[in-house]
Amino acid sequence: MPSDLLLGQLAALAVLSPAAAFAALGSYLLLLRAPSERVVSRVVLSALSISLAASLAIWGSAVAAPYAFMPVALGRWFETGSYAFEIVVLVDRLSATMMVLVSLIALLVGRFSVAYLHREAGFARFFLLLALFSTGMLALVSAGTIDLLFAGWELVGATSVLLVAFFHERAAPPRAALRVYVTYRLCDVGLLGGAVLMHDVAGSAQWGEAFGAAAWPGTAAPLGPGAATALALCLLLAAMGKSAQFPLGSWLPRAMEGPTPSSALFYGAISVHAGVYLMLRAAPLLQRTPAASAVIACVGAATALYGTLVGRAQADVKSALAHATMTQVGLMFVEIGLGLYWLALVHLFAHACLRCLQMLRAPSALRDAQEIRAAHAGEPLLPLGVAGRLLPAALVRRVYWLSLERFHLEALQERLIAAPLMRLGRLLDQSERRWVAALSGWPERAAVDPGEEGAPGVPERAMAFDPPARSAKRARS
Predict the structure, then answer these.
(1) Is pLDDT at 209 greater than 90 in this prediction?
(2) Which of 266, 364, 391, 392 has the least C-beta neighbours within 10 A?
(3) Which pTM does this prediction carry?
(4) Are 188 and 274 in contact (CB under 8 A)?
């Protein structure tokens, strides 16, 4: 079996190979000119192949040592005062399995994209983001500390938003990317708070020191019930945002505005399961807090019910697949809440492979439907819904209408969350303006919006330094 140092070097190679491809191609694009499609694809696919080979070697060593739990320190990024950012990778069955899944799916999607995005204007940009995403996701799943996991988590979120807005010449993709970005930002507060709380209550950022060094899924973490519950709920908030759990999953169908390969990679196979991985990594913590486990199971059950009802009423295949993904990820949360961690891991691996295939075949869905109907020789297909035959017709119609409207989830979020936050922001902005006006000696500017030209209360001396405003005033006079 390889030594700990060799395993750490293999993990670093798996993470840094796509990072090196991103740095090389990015530098070439900035300093010289756009390389050919063949050069771009070969560089990125070669780096992903190296990552896959290293991940397979790590996975083989983890299988050979079934009780292995090997954190490998690779040095420090920086150190200040009493805090040091340790670069630690963790080799166990969970991380090794996820590294193989990430590198394998990324390589397959990259190979598929060579033909799918041929002659696309953003070909090089897509492969650059693919390499950066692979770096972030591999760092996330191999991280031995919550600090390193947070860094990979943010890289995954950034590349996700950029790929949703890939076709930025249209209006819909940027709007969808903005919704994804806002949801990620709000929910990532949970991961940031969890990292701070973990440092405080456990005195360490390393999973082994905070949760125990037993082989995954390990035993109950050596933390008090209150601290364990608070930490688990913080991590759950982050996982709900990344894995599109109810009621925070309305962004997932909108994220399908990106290219089909990125939809398969992010929202069918890898990125959408990052929250599941976070909950699996926190399995020793969940064993300490039954209350948090019950909340996780309830969130997953609500998501599975919502995704099933809404997904059956969708008219386009990518939205239907998005809600089907939401349903299966919700079932994984239920399994984790019930303590079935191994079942959730197997479910994750199988679902990622299946959903990636379905997403890549989404453009061929119409032809598949025609072939199915032709195979039945014009006979009507059997109804699949059992509830539709058992429940009253009026209730079925009502639920169907709500499913078409996606239960008005986005409207409720805008009314109950976005609107109050915007009002609070405006109140804070007005208070800040009054305070600045009082300090500057111009109290009459307290209620002025600087975006309004010639607004009442703006002194002449203030407009004197603003040529566009002065010109507008002269034109009106």
Answers:
(1) no
(2) 392
(3) 0.82
(4) no
